[in-house]
Amino acid sequence: MCIHNKDQCYLKPKRYHRKTMEILPLHLGVKHLLDSGLHKVPGIYIRSKEERPNVVHREESFPVLDLGAALNSSEARAALVPQIREACMKWGFFQVINHGVPHSLVDEMQSVAREFHALPNEEKMRYFSTDTESRMRYGTSFNVAQDKVFSWRDYLRHSCLPLAEMQDLWPEKPASYRKVTADYSTRVRNLAKFLLELISESLDLPKDYIDKAFNGCSQIMALNFYPACPEPDLVLGIGPHSDPGSITLLLQDHVEGLQVMHGNEWYSVKPIPYSFVVNLGDQIQILSNDKYKSAEHRAVVNSSEDRMSIPISMGPNWESLVHPASKLVEGSPVFKPMFYKDYIMALQAGGLNRQWLLDTLRT
Ligand code: OGA
Ligand code: NI
Predict the structure, then answer these.
(1) What is the pLDDT of residues 25-72, one digit of tens each?
(2) Which of 140, 141, 154, 224 to mutate to test ligand 1, by most ligand atoms within 8 A of the CB atom?
(3) Is Iron given among the entry's keywords (predicted)?
(4) pTM score > 0.85 for this model?
């Protein structure tokens, strides 16, 4: 684990206060800046006019799937497959309710995550690193060592597998972090497996096709914290991107902020208490031979309330060679094969504002 290295300089030109020209310790995070009395957004956070969130986003009924009956009855489960197919085809995004993860555990996860972000900065900075290969790190924006424009976000990000090994690397504070996160990530992993089976079937593939093709799974969790922002119209909490893995299950609090791109417009995803927002990642787009798309999304912030989200990104096992399922290929496959590990490394090297990596794999 890397503690802030004094020889590494994040304080590049332009990382100063817009009015006073004072150099700002931006790597310490957005919350820290605000706690130090900042009232204006530093220049490095300001997005270009085209990227700013001041676009009209329409309301539309976003798919909400009730899993309650399907978890217990095979008939109800079968009835869910066409609903999943439609949501995957149309949006690449849906919300799930009655998913079996206990509400009490969701509450506990949200409280330990909030408690973590409320810790003194010195405590959180023990885990600070800009090494994108690190299996656990605290950071801000995406990667302060390479971002050209910063995102209004502080985060902790860590792997959840292998659980026994990872648990010892997770934060020591709050005291219940390791236990709650172990339970929560296990329950969400089981839900993800259930959804990936349904997604397999929705592609007319055997139920266990994705699990076998991806040699099991990897699992990364993040605690995203988006402090209320004095100038929310100039910044983004997280810039437009698609998630690289198989599916992401995101838990958001009551504050709206997540937006999904659909037909060239941004749609806001209204929070539903105790639901998960599920989105398809790039590896499902590859495996499905472009039948399903990994939807582009972003997060905006607001001036009145902090927002927190906890995404769990499932992915293939790192060593898996991912390619289109042969049953879905007519003629030549749309994508070239690539090891998942190499995909992630290429992505990390390019940052979030990369050219669409997926497109480089098109044949
Ligand atoms: C992410 C992400 C959106 C949000 O962390 O990949 O898309 O609402 N987050 O926090
Ligand atoms: Ni995302």
Answers:
(1) 888 999 998 998 888 899 899 999 989 986 656 667 789 999 999 999
(2) 224
(3) yes
(4) yes
- Gyration radius (Cα) of the chain, Å: 20
For ligand 1, is residue 257 a contact (CB within 6 Å)?
yes
Ligand 1: which atom is nearest the Cα of residue 252?
Answer: 8
pLDDT digits (tens, 9 = 90+) for 102-140: 999 999 999 999 999 999 999 999 999 988 889 999 999
Full set of structural domains in the chain with CATH = 58-361 (2.60.120.330)
Determine contact, residues 279/250, Cβ cutoff 8 Å: yes
Ligand 1 centroid distance, CA of 74 (Å): 33
pLDDT at 354: 53
What is the Cα 11 distance to its own chain's centre? 27
Reading the block at residue 234, the tokens are 């100039």
Q: Which residue has the CA at smallest separation from atom 10 of ligand 1?
A: 309
| Pocket-testing residue among 110, 309, 352, ligand 1, by greatest number of atoms within 8 A of Cβ | 309
* 249 alpha carbon – ligand 1 mean position (Å): 10
User: Is the omega angle on the peptide bond into residue 171 within 30 degrees of 0, that is, cis?
Assistant: no
For ligand 1, is residue 309 a contact (CB within 6 Å)? yes
Residue 132 pLDDT: 83
**What would the mean pLDDT of 3-19 be, rounded to a whole number?**
48
Of 117, 254, 258, which is best to mutate to test ligand 1, by the most ligand atoms within 8 angstroms of its C-beta? 258
Ligand (nearest to CA of 294): 2
